[in-house]
């Protein structure tokens, strides 16, 4: 134990914006008392001490389901004690530095440097320098090569880990795929390493990392040499025998049997998503060509309706939340979705607990379900057509047609809804001005439909509110569009202005995403190890909380990038199909051949036949799930293994 002075004083806590972020003591939080007694008695413990780190503020981290799941899985183990830590906001960051107080865990106020392992979840590239903030405040060397035998092992997981190359110099280990089983296997190795220090034959950290690299799904960056060229792309090759050339992601085959937190930690303050969650299934059947999640989370695996209902009852009992969300990439595609929703609503009837429905697919909307949800709590509807014309929706494989959009919204308006949010993207491959103007035209026609429904039904209509929101296309790894270029900032601004000028109704509000952050996100999403010194310099110059618009300083990042001989165009450019991409040594189960075929289809087809009339397989490796889903075609994508 390094015995740094923690926790903070009362006056320190009272001087920051949200003291509740830093005090812990939440309902259902876990402190292993036998471990604390052992520490008090001997100054050490046989437990593996695991700090689950979220590189953003508490309110966002506590809304993250992966945190709750892995916190629960680790603390169920009889040899791991898991605690939580979050990025302190700027006011607390300043106090910690001025008073030389290390960043500590929520549960026991232990400095991060006193843990055996730190695990970061990386859900968004713009949080990268916050990882460095947490390591720095936690008294841990930033670069993996600078850490000694007594420093914690630093690992990461989450969607950004699939291309961890920009951050590879800072992590000892990256976990590819779903972590419930893998993280326990890793913890067992850490336990052996820790206990060996008390023997005559201690395991070295290098040997530990080598053993961890043998675990399926674990990537150890230091065991790979890298090089880059504009012509041939990236080369990432093992630098010692026994290290796999390709790291294959892990999946959980049976979601019914995997442990799930029905007694999650309940925050003492309001967080971003202040409700309980049921995870309905993993994966997505849709195959939208821009969507990274739709490819990296394959194959689809559902929980049974019986298990979900039981977990829903336990969550309501153990948390006290009056709202429960159903979580997946496309919840209304769940096979027994109507029955599940009905059974949950019946269970919650009279309990003042409502069911929160996610963004629904326009082609699977149900008036009956709308009315049932309305009986508890009515809110706005959120849909994501993504593109304003059918041609472009076919290019991106959105698999909804205009008639689906209008028939669904007609049902919604008949059901009494008057608030609608519509999400689109600008800058999609092959996009033209006609596609951009199609967004405005679609919104106007939805507005007209609302008043047509009112006249036809004779019902008294409330004020209509339509929000058109546009994000910017980002070519992500492991998608059919991973080779595409990103539109220039100037071109994106022109398209945004064109759309804005053509939305004139007071009932239609236009909201748009920041350009600069989207440009930087592309750099990080498609980056490689050349970005590590860029990120390190950026952090040391004070650039943190890039995910927050008021903290993001794009011009300074451009200056740093240029000083290191790099440019935005190095990463936002179109990549030719023959070059090796920086993440190709990671196998997510979807073949490069399949991704290329999907890219070619996007450019070849101006009008895509109905997805139910064709099946070419989805390129997914079965991962031993135990069945081939070739015949199970729903909503446009089969599950067949290639």
Model description:
- The chain has 642 residues and is α/β, with parallel strands linked by helices.
- Among the domains are: 239 residues, Response regulator (Rossmann fold), CATH 3.40.50.2300; 50 residues, no CATH class.
- It contains 21 helices and 21 strands.
- The chain has a six-stranded mixed β-sheet with strand order 2-1-3-4-5-6, covered by helices on one side.
- The longest helix is centred in the C-terminal third of the chain and has 25 residues.
- The protein is globular.
Jot down its keywords.
disordered C terminus, 6-stranded mixed β-sheet, alpha/beta, 34% helix, 642 residues, 4-stranded parallel β-sheet, Rossmann fold
Largest sheet: 6 strands, mixed
- As a percent range, the share of strand residues is 15-25%
Any low-confidence stretches, pLDDT <50, length ≥5?
Answer: 1-5, 607-619, 621-642
Query: What's the CATH H-level homologous superfamily of the domain at 10-248?
Result: Response regulator
Q: How far apart are the termini? A: 52 Å
CATH topology of the domain at 10-248: Rossmann fold
Helix count?
21
């Amino acid at each position: 134990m390094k015995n740094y002075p923690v926790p903070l004083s009362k006056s320190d806590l009272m001087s920051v914006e949200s003291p509740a972020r830093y005090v812990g003591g939440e309902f259902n939080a876990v402190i292993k008392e036998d471990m604390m007694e052992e520490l008090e008695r001997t100054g050490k413990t046989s437990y593996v001490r695991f700090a689950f780190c979220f590189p953003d503020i508490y309110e966002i981290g506590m809304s993250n389901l992966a945190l709750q799941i892995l916190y629960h899985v680790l603390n169920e183990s009889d040899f791991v004690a898991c605690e939580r830590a979050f990025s302190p906001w700027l006011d607390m960051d300043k106090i910690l530095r001025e008073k030389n107080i290390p960043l500590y865990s929520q549960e026991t106020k232990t400095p991060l440097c006193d843990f055996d392992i730190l695990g970061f979840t990386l859900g968004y590239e713009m949080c990268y320098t916050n990882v460095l903030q947490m390591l720095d405040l936690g008294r841990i060397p930033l670069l993996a090569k600078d850490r000694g035998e007594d420093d914690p092992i630093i690992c990461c997981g989450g969607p950004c880990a699939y291309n961890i190359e920009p951050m590879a110099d800072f992590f000892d280990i990256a976990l590819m795929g779903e972590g419930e089983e893998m993280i326990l296997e890793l913890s067992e190795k850490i336990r052996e390493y820790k206990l060996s220090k008390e023997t005559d034959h201690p395991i070295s950290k290098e040997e530990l990392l080598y053993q961890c690299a043998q675990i399926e799904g674990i990537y150890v960056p230091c065991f790979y040499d890298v090089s880059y060229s504009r012509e041939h792309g990236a080369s990432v090759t093992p630098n010692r025998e026994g290290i796999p050339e390709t790291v294959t992601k892990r999946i959980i085959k049976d979601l019914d049997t995997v442990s799930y937190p029905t007694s999650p930690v309940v925050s003492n303050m309001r967080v971003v998503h202040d409700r309980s969650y049921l995870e309905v299934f993993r994966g997505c059947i849709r195959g939208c060509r821009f969507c990274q999640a739709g490819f990296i989370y394959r194959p689809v695996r559902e929980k049974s309706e019986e298990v979900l209902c039981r977990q829903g009852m336990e969550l309501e009992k153990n948390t006290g939340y009056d709202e429960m969300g159903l979580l997946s990439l496309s919840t209304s595609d769940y096979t027994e979705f109507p029955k599940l929703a009905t059974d949950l609503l019946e269970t919650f009837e009279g309990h003042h607990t409502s069911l929160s429905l996610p963004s629904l697919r326009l082609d699977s909307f149900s008036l009956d379900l709308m009315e049932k949800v309305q009986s508890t709590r009515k809110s706005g509807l959120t849909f994501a057509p993504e593109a304003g014309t059918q041609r472009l929706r076919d290019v991106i494989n959105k698999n909804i047609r205009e008639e689906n959009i209008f028939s669904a919204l007609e049902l919604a308006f008949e059901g009494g809804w008057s608030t609608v949010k519509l999400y689109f993207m600008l800058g999609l491959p092959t996009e033209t001005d006609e596609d951009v103007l199609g967004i405005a035209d679609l919104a106007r026609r939805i507005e007209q439909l609302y008043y047509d429904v009112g006249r036809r039904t004779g019902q008294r209509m409330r004020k209509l509110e339509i929000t058109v929101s546009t994000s910017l296309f980002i070519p992500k790894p492991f998608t059919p569009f991973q080779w595409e270029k990103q539109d220039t900032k100037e071109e994106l601004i022109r398209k945004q202005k064109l759309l804005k000028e053509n939305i004139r109704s007071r009932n239609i509000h236009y909201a748009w995403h920041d350009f600069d952050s989207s440009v930087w996100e592309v750099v990080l999403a498609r980056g490689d190890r050349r970005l590590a010194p860029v990120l390190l310099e950026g952090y040391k110059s004070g650039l943190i909380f890039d995910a927050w618009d008021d903290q993001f300083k794009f011009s300074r990042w451009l200056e740093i990038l240029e000083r290191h001989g790099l440019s935005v165009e190095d990463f936002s450019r179109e990549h030719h199909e023959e070059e090796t991409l920086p993440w190709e040594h990671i196998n997510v189960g979807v073949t490069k051949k399949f991704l290329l075929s999907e890219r070619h289809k996007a450019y070849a087809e101006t009008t895509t036949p109905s997805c139910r009339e064709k099946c070419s397989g989805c390129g997914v490796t079965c991962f031993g799930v135990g069945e081939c889903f070739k015949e199970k075609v729903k909503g446009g994508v089969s599950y067949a293994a290639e």
